């Protein structure tokens, strides 16, 4: 048996694990983080430069939680002296009367978050990059933006270490023995013991919780990058985050030009089921062609895809997260199933996990995220 007992062992140093480690270390917990790859790797769900942050959701509880998530990101920026959150505003497009547009307007109104319907003329004056017909609903929300995702993960880890956390990379957990007073975590060569375990293993979660038989599907997702001739027109101060429910019911989104890659455009969801260790990480030609056809109609000056990237979603059947305690072990806490929309919540999930570890409860409403819902 190991002689040292950590206050918390965090398994997985992606978006959620890095944030949990930071919040735990910040309140003085003795934290060990175990990550199977190197920090910042590209095999999970949190790599790449950008992730959308937004209030608009068709389920009102997300908009409520986002209020604290935004403020936690701002606090992280102050603590690290880095800009991680970029506000661009957003437009949400869909055919006249599309139910998604109506329900996000309703949930924003319920949460007291300002938004406004725009006429086509307002859109073409403010953002002439878009080509839209006059039978579309256009919803503007000023607080939307994007997070510098890869840097958020590294910053959370760096600050966790500054507060005393130990991060072990290239260390894969193969088993969690939770039937003892203090759970034991096994790697191929070592064992570690913690008063609490925080499991934030993304696409690999089910491997470590076989006994629960969770309904989590891991899917291959792809994003395309565009490098228009006039890059100025697509900078974050000139071009918004956008989302659209297309005529065929697909959810497409885009993020302004940022970093090395360019303007990011992708379809949310509808990926094929894969296993995280064997997923083919080559982008599919037909997916790229599909995105290029969409762009040719909606934002023609973006041109064609210049590069593409693969990433994994871990999806629950209702696309709501799992944030809960293991049903048979109060010392094992789980944050998983972020279903392709979790990154914006990392700052808050980290805080929630630290509260669950230190106080055994949180005042945030995590009832929609119960494991046995
Ligand atoms: C293409 C794409 C676009 C997205 N866009 C957005 C967006 O715009 N806005 C938004 O809010 N969200 C977005 N998301 C979703 C968001 O990125 C994810 O919900 C979030 O990153 C999930 O974080 P995670 O910590 O659960 O998983 P990960 O970041 O994958 O972290 C899990 C970590 O656990 C490690 N691990 C797993 N098993 C073990 C083990 N046995 N031992 C040790 N380590 C282990 C893994 O190596 C990994 O580092 C997007 C996701 C993708 C793929």
Please characterize this protein's 3D structure.
- There is one protein chain.
- This protein is of the alpha+beta class and 373 residues long.
- The protein has two domains: 161 residues, FAD/NAD(P)-binding domain (3-Layer(bba) Sandwich), CATH 3.50.50.60; 154 residues, D-Amino Acid Oxidase, Chain A, domain 2 (2-Layer Sandwich).
- The protein is 27% helix and 30% strand.
- It has eight helices and 19 strands.
- The strands form three sheets. Strands 1, 2, 9, 10, 11, 12, 18 and 19 form an eight-stranded mixed sheet that branches.
- Helix 1 crosses helix 8 and helix 2 packs across helix 3.
- It is globular.
- The relative contact order is 0.20.
- The mean pLDDT is 96.
- Bound molecules: flavin-adenine dinucleotide.
- CATH H-level superfamily of the largest domain: FAD/NAD(P)-binding domain
User: What's the CATH architecture of the largest domain?
Assistant: 3-Layer(bba) Sandwich
User: What is the end-to-end distance?
Assistant: 36 Å
Given the helix and strand composition, which structural class is it? alpha+beta
Give the overall average pLDDT.
Answer: 96
Morphology call: globular
Q: Encode the helix/strand succession as letters.
A: EHEEHEEHEHEEHEEEEHEEEEHEEEH
Strand element count: 19
CATH topology of the largest domain: FAD/NAD(P)-binding domain
Could you name the ranges where pLDDT drops below 50 across 5 or more consecutive residues?
Answer: none
What small molecules accompany the polymer chains?
A: flavin-adenine dinucleotide
- Main beta-sheet strand count, sense and barrel state: 8 strands, mixed
């Amino acid at each position: 048996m190991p002689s040292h007992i950590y206050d918390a062992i965090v398994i997985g140093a992606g978006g959620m694990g890095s944030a949990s480690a930071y919040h735990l270390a910040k309140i003085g917990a003795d934290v060990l983080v175990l990550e199977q790859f190197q920090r910042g790797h590209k095999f999970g769900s949190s790599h790449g430069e950008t992730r959308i942050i937004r209030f608009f959701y068709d389920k009102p509880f997300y908009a409520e939680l986002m209020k604290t998530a935004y403020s936690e990101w701002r606090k992280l920026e102050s603590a690290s002296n880095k800009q991680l959150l970029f506000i661009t505003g957003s437009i949400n497009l869909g055919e006249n009367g599309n139910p998604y547009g109506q329900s996000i307007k309703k949930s924003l109104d319920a949460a007291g978050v300002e938004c406004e319907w725009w006429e086509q003329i307002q859109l073409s004056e403010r953002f002439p990059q878009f080509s839209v017909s006059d039978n579309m609903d256009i919803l503007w929300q000023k607080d939307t933006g994007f997070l510098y995702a890869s840097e958020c993960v590294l910053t959370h880890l760096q600050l966790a270490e500054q507060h005393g956390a130990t991060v072990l990379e290239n260390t894969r957990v193969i088993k969690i023995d939770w039937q003892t007073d203090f759970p034991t975590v096994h790697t191929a060569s070592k064992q570690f013991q913690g008063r609490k375990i925080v499991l934030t293993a993304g696409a690999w979660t089910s491997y470590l919780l076989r006994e629960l038989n969770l309904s989590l599907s891991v899917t291959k997702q792809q994003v395309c990058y565009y490098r228009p001739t006039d890059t100025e027109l697509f900078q974050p101060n000139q071009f918004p985050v956008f989302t659209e429910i297309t005529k065929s019911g697909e959810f497409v989104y885009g993020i302004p030009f940022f970093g090395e890659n360019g303007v990011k455009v992708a379809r949310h969801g509808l990926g094929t089921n894969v296993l995280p260790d064997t997923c083919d990480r080559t982008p599919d030609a037909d997916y790229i062609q599909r995105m290029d056809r969409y762009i040719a109609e909606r934002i023609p000056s973006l041109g064609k895809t210049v590069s593409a990237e693969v990433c994994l979603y871990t999806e629950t059947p209702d696309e709501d997260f799992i944030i809960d305690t293991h049903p048979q072990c109060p010392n094992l806490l789980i944050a998983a199933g972020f279903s392709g929309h979790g990154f914006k919540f990392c700052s808050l999930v980290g805080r929630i996990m630290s509260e669950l570890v230190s106080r055994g409860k949180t005042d945030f409403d995590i009832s929609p995220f119960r494991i046995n819902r």
